Amino acid sequence: MANPFSRSLWPAYAGLVLTPLFWAGNAVVAKGTVESIPPLSMSFWRWVIALTVLLPFGLPGMVRHRRVIRQYLGSMVALATFSVAAFNSLLYYAAVTTSATNIALINATIPIFIALLAWLLLGDRTRPLQAVGIALAVLGILTVVARGKLTVLLNLEAQPGDLIMVAAVFSWGLFSVLLRRQAVPLPALTFLTTQIALGTLIILPFYLAELLLFKGGFEVRQSTLMPLLYFAFFPGILAYAFWNYGVHRIGPARAAMFMYLTPVFASVLAGVFLGERLGLFHVVGGLLILAGLYLATRGRRDSAPETGER
Questions:
Q1: Which of 77, 84, 175, 184 is the most exposed place for a label (fewest CB within 10 A)?
Q2: CA 108, 113, 116, 122 torsion: positive or negative?
Q3: Residue 231: helix, strand or coil by DSSP?
Q4: Is residue 308 predicted with pLDDT exceeding 80?
Q5: What sign does the CA torsion over 143, 146, 152, 156 have?
Q6: What pLDDT is attached to residue 233?
Q7: Alpha carbon of 55 to those of 126, 195, 240: distances in Å?
Q8: Over the stretch 261-277, which tens digit does the pLDDT of each residue have?
């Protein structure tokens, strides 16, 4: 087992701290710019920029492994739909009607949804400790969605953005389960580049429909270009690279613990840059979610939650 205090591991730990910071920034920047950039425009151009950067490095592998890509094209389209196309598009739509803090708290439950869907679709054994963790995290989600008021749930008065974010997390859970069930034998960079290319094509017709609705989309200026560059480089390319490097160096179970930092970073950033205030329901729901995550990951120490181009 790697010595956690080894100097050679500090780059891995630094990357694993930056990764949830970048993911938190994804929610905060989206919330701060969603009135200037429509959600699907945000998602489409994020991936166009990321693909432009990756293509010179990933295209040779795509050409070299084109037979494998053709063989698994159906699986890759499904994977790209649930990850690249759906997850971030739904997240950006959620930002229209809910807070960055809520987005980050619900987003933090991705490992719970993966475990739940793996049990339902793959028949994975759920240990008692993991089941308790799933139940606590679900209770935490309901607390956040209901804003601490039972009447919100009983009267179906939840904010649309919270429910959209639950759908986004569900989409990522499906992607993760399908990734295990339909593993594609491609190098990481080739797989990532292909996924982004397919996902961008899937978003394209919806983006064009949004252009018609918003009559031209958004104005390209510094205040809109900088967020798109952030989305492409930080929660996209860099977070993916840092996460994979960290998992490789210190192991998946230890790396998974760093995911708990995402809602912490998001609440701080949202407070500083957006003026969002934490309510009691945020604290209670957040503690339930974090406790559930801790128990669920302790109940399944052999793997880290599948992540990627989030």
A1: 77
A2: negative
A3: helix
A4: no
A5: negative
A6: 94
A7: 40, 12, 16
A8: 888 888 889 989 999 88
Helix, strand, coil: what percent of the chain each, to 5? 80, 0, 20
pLDDT tens for each residue of 131-176: 888 888 888 888 888 877 777 766 666 789 999 999 999 999 999 8
AA letter at 209: A
Per-residue pLDDT tens digits for 71-104: 999 999 999 999 999 999 999 999 999 999 999 8
Mean pLDDT for all residues in the chain:
86
Q: Rounded to whole angstroms, how far apart are CA atoms 28 and 101?
A: 8
Question: What are the tokens at 125?
Answer: 């054994």
How many residues would you count in the chain? 310
Q: Are 47 and 204 in contact (CB under 8 A)?
A: no
More confident site: 121 or 91: 91
Q: Which amino acid is at 64?
A: R
H-helix segments, 83-127: 86-97, 100-107, 110-122
pTM of the model: 0.87
User: How many Å apart are CA 104 and CA 156, to the nearest integer?
Assistant: 22
In single-letter form, the type of residue at position 190 comes to: T
pLDDT, average across residues 42-63: 96
DSSP 306: P
Cα separation, 261 vs 210, in Å, equals: 34
The answer to whether 93 and 163 have CB atoms below 8 angstroms apart is: no
Contact residues for 187 (Cβ-Cβ < 8 A; gap 6+) = 61, 65
Determine the Cα–Cα distance for residues 242 and 244; give it in Å rounded to an integer. Answer: 6
69: Cβ–Cβ under 8 A, 6 or more apart, which residues?
62, 76, 186, 194
Q: Check: CB of residue 55 under 8 Å from CB of residue 193.
A: yes
> What is d(CA 175, CA 184) in angstroms, rounded to the nearest whole number?
13
Q: Which amino acid appears at position 193 of this protein?
A: T
CB count, 10 Å around CB of 34?
19
Ramachandran angles phi, psi of 32, nearest 5°: -75, -20
pLDDT of residue 108: 84
